Amino acid sequence: MKNISDCPIGVFDSGVGGISVLSALRRELPFEDFVYFGDSAHAPYGTKTPEEVLQFSEQILTHFRTVPVKALVIACNTATAAAADTLRQRYVQLPIIGVEPAIKPAATFTEHPKVLILATPMTLCLEKFRHLLKSLEEKADFFLLPCPGLVELIEQGKTDCPETEGYLRQTLASYLDAPPDAVVLGCTHFPFVKPLLQKLFGEKVRFFDGAEGTARQLHRRLEESELLSARTAEGSLRLESSDPSGQAVRLMQTLLNRLV
């Protein structure tokens, strides 16, 4: 029987965005095996109801349990906010790590900064997000900006093209003349347009996302549970998608190669 510590780690997102988190996970834990599932058939999650996102998340976890996986990373801000607590209650033996918007690092990197938070419409409305924001409201001035349509552009592979730059220029118009001190990329898809955002905002603006913190948290949880792999060879990776065409998996590999 296979030792549970030799089982892979499951990672999922609404599509290709979680590849930005997967890259950080593999840097932090190079000897672990990973299985990544991108639910591109249902992307974006950010315009769905919390109940729909929970249903999709449970279906993916059911799939992962047949692999089986030794831990689960929800590499999606929306799914973390909508489903993580419920999944942890239902699967208490499985370490489940979610990705949180990097609001605290952005709010504390300098004295009372102006922080612009880019996220999906649902993430910005959820109680868990609002609670986190309220706990830091004395540390910074926060500005919330939903970005409907941006995930769809990234899912189409349009991470660096005139169409996406035009979308960002229009969406960010109110903030370009007087840029914030920090921008929180509150969706795991958004790091893939960071070069365009840097171009629009200028080099002085700091960017924050939750990928590295998620990777460190996974490492801690595996260590505490004595689930770290004992291997010293590079771990394997399997990419899966609910998109039957194979196009999403090809885009995942392209984006992953870009981050190596």
Task: Detail the topology: elements first, then pairings.
Elements (H helix, E strand, L loop, with lengths): L8 E5 L5 H10 L5 E5 L11 H16 L5 E4 L2 H14 L5 E3 L4 H6 L5 E6 L1 H5 L1 H9 L5 E6 L3 H6 L6 H10 L1 H4 L5 E4 L8 H8 L4 E3 L2 H14 L12 E5 L5 H13 L1
Parallel strand pairs: 1-2, 1-3, 2-9, 3-4, 5-6, 5-7, 7-8
Helix pairs in contact: 1-11, 1-12, 2-3
Biggest sheet record: 5 strands, parallel
Domain count, please report it.
2
**What is the H/E order?**
EHEHEHEHEHHEHHHEHEHEH
Question: What is the radius of gyration?
Answer: 18 Å
How are the strands ordered across the major sheet? 4-3-1-2-9
Low-confidence regions: none
CATH fold naming of the largest domain: Rossmann fold
Instruction: Determine the mean pLDDT.
Output: 95
Strand content: 15-25%
The CATH architecture of the largest domain comes to 3-Layer(aba) Sandwich
Shape estimate: globular
Enumerate how many helices there are, as a single number: 12
Strand element count: 9
